[in-house]
Design brief:
The chain is α+β, with helices and mostly antiparallel strands and about 150 residues long. It has a domain at about 1-105: 3-Layer(aba) Sandwich (Aminopeptidase), CATH 3.40.630.30. It has helices at about 10-20, 20-25, 35-45, 90-100, 115-125, and strands at about 1-5, 50-60, 60-70, 75-80, 105-110, 130-135, 140-145. The protein has a 7-stranded mixed β-sheet with strand order 1-2-3-4-5-7-6, sandwiched between helices. The longest helix has 12 residues, at about 35-45. It is globular and about 35 Å long.
Length: about 150
């Protein structure tokens, strides 16, 4: 497994991952239309020097991405992995590697409470539950990774 900078060719796969029906069901995230998705990545993600984003590869194949961004005074992380890589330890290893590079603490994440895979991933990587919050009608769990 390797983390590397995002390449333009990765965006098509990231778009497909965001539209995967099971990903949508588990994350409760509404996928964006293609133009909006590509503009978001070009301007808000790749165009923002405060954002750290990495493509995750497994044996040279693009498996997903991990990203950290600022939301007001809090640093959040997020990730998306192609379904073919779920349940294989890819998320745990990718997030562990990413956390070596992303040194800001505390770090926050807020997965949908029903996304048990994401909840387990964060707990394995040392995040602790710190409360709940609502995104629309969906309850999410706030996780925090404190100073080490």
């Amino acid at each position: 497994m390797r983390l590397r900078p995002v390449e333009e060719a990765d965006l098509e796969l990231f778009f497909q991952q965001e539209h995967d029906p099971e990903t949508v069901r588990r994350s409760k995230f509404t996928p964006r239309e293609r133009d909006r998705f590509m503009t978001h990545w070009a301007t808000r993600v790749l165009g923002d020097p405060t954002i750290l984003v990495r493509t995750v590869t497994v044996n040279g194949e693009t498996a997903g991405n991990v990203v950290a961004w600022w939301e007001q005074d809090r640093r959040f992380i997020g990730y998306a992995f192609d379904r073919r890589f779920w349940g294989r330890g890819v998320g745990t290893r990718a997030l562990t590697l990413f956390l070596e590079e992303e040194t800001n603490r505390p770090l926050y994440a807020d997965p949908y409470q029903g996304n048990t895979g994401s909840v387990r991933l964060l707990e394995k990587c040392g995040f602790r539950r710190s409360g709940t919050l609502m995104h629309g009608e969906n309850e999410h769990i706030m996780f925090v990774l404190d100073e080490r």
